């Protein structure tokens, strides 16, 4: 299944406390459950004013639907076309 990186602009994201992050996660999981098995949240990275999420989904439209239903921004969605790591150098 294709992998996507979603950039979510959330001012003050890096200042969110554990309870706030838990609430956001619960909201996301609730929407994912309703959307079915074709979309999967892998992980997210919280920075100062953005959250970068990694998702598996058949297409960008399903990711946009997740954002719409959850009330989350999805400011930029990029399909991952390849991955590299230190192992690539060997």
Task: Record the SSE blueprint.
Blueprint: E1 3-9, H1 18-35, E2 40-46, E3 50-56, H2 60-70, E4 76-79
Antiparallel strand pairs: 1-3, 1-4, 2-3
Commentary on this structure:
With 90 residues, the chain is α+β, with helices and mostly antiparallel strands. The chain has a single domain (3-89), classed as ORF SCO4226, nickel-binding ferredoxin-like monomer (Alpha-Beta Plaits, 2-Layer Sandwich). Helices cover 32% and strands 28% of the residues. It is built from 2 helices and 4 strands, in the order βαββαβ. The chain has a 4-stranded antiparallel β-sheet, with no helix packed on it. β2 and β3 form a beta hairpin. α1 packs across α2 (60-70).
Short description:
The chain has 90 residues and is of the alpha+beta class. The chain contains 2 helices and 4 strands. The chain has a 4-stranded antiparallel sheet, with no helix packed on it.
In order across it, which strands form the biggest sheet?
Answer: 2-3-1-4
Q: Provide the domain count.
A: 1
Mean pLDDT across every amino acid position = 97
What is the end-to-end distance?
26 Å
The CATH homologous superfamily: ORF SCO4226, nickel-binding ferredoxin-like monomer
Key phrases:
28% strand; alpha+beta; single chain; SCO4226-like; 90 residues; DUF4242 domain-containing protein; Alpha-Beta Plaits
């Amino acid at each position: 299944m294709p992998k996507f990186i979603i950039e979510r602009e959330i001012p003050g994201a890096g200042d969110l406390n554990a309870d706030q992050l838990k609430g956001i996660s619960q909201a996301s999981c609730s929407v994912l459950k309703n959307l079915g098995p074709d979309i999967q949240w892998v992980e997210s990275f919280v920075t100062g004013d953005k959250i970068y999420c990694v998702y598996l989904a058949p297409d960008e439209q399903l990711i946009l639907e997740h954002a719409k239903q959850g009330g989350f921004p999805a400011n930029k969605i990029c399909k991952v076309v390849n991955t590299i790591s230190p192992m690539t150098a060997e």
